[in-house]
Amino acid sequence: MRSYKNGHQITVEHLINVVQATIDKVELCRDRRGGHFEHLGP
Predict the structure, then answer these.
(1) Organism's domain of life (predicted)?
(2) In the chain, N or C: fewer CB atoms in 10 Å?
(3) Contacts of 42 (CB under 8 A, 6+ apart)
């Protein structure tokens, strides 16, 4: 693992990216399944 000076900021950005990716997957699953949540894993 690399060391960052702004480790907290990097972590927050990473969490935001993860949340955004999860939302995108949920939206894709909703569009495909018609509102059913099937794949909520990473």
Answers:
(1) Eukaryota
(2) N
(3) 22
Question: Phi and psi for 29 in degrees, rounded to 5?
Answer: -65, -40
Local structure of residue 40 (DSSP, 8 states):
-
Tell me the pTM. Answer: 0.46
Q: What are phi and psi of 8, to 5 degrees?
A: -65, -45
Q: Nearest 5°: CA angle at 21, between 26 and 9?
A: 140
Instruction: Write the pLDDT tens digit of every residue in 4-36.
Output: 565 666 688 889 999 999 998 888 777 666 655
Amino acid identity for residue 35 in this structure: G
